[in-house]
Amino acid sequence: MAGIIIVGVDGSETSMKAARTAAQLAAGLSAELRVVTAHATDNAEVVRIGNDKWYLSDSETAEKVAKKAAEDLATEGLATSYAALHGKPQDALINEAERVDAQLIVVGNVGMKGLGRVLGSVATSVAQRASCDVYIAKTDS
Q1: CB atoms < 10 A from the CB of 44, how many?
Q2: Residue 80 has what pLDDT?
Q3: Residue 84 and residue 65: Cα distance in Å, rounded?
Q4: Backbone φ, ψ for residue 73 (5° rounding)
């Protein structure tokens, strides 16, 4: 298959379960794994404690999450890359998949039950709107 597989992460264990599944698929298919996070705002704030000062931003936090996940998933022979994108998670995944001409998007199944299914979860939205194949990984057990 060689190509690109996209997976979204948010730092949660369930998103990392989906990411590990995506890494296994990418390795088995000789594809590149692209780890994507999304941040809905460009908020930034300065936090001061005593004489110490930290600059925190949503985009930096999202990039750190994506980078750490990509590094944790990297194995010999598996090419990984990452991106932190502005927008809703489903839009970020779909837009990035189109931008890089990905062959597959991997998402977790959490949020696809009950009311979440009716209102529209990330997985449901991606499955309905993506122009490439979508793999829904079981992450709720």
Answers
A1: 11
A2: 96
A3: 8
A4: -90, -15
Rounded Cα distance, 86 and 15, in Å? 18
Query: Residue ranges of the domains in the chain?
Result: 4-137
Q: How far apart are CA 11 and CA 1, in angstroms?
A: 28
Q: Is 39 exposed, middle or buried (0-12, 13-18, 19+ CB in 10 A)?
A: buried
Q: What is the pLDDT of residue 76?
A: 82
CB atoms within 10 A of CB 135: 15
Q: Which SS3 state, helix, strand or coil, does residue 94 take?
A: helix
Count of beta carbons in the 10 Å neighbourhood of residue 100: 16
pLDDT at 140: 78
Question: What CATH number was assigned to the domain covering residues 4-137?
Answer: 3.40.50.620
pLDDT number for residue 68: 94
Distance CA 6, CA 29 (A): 13
Taking only the tens place, the pLDDT of each residue in 35-54 is: 999 887 666 555 566 666 55
DSSP, collapsed to helix, strand or coil, labels residue 140 as coil
Q: Please report where in the chains the tokens 């839009």 appear, as a residue.
A: 91
Residues in the chain with pLDDT values less than 70: 1, 41-57, 111-120
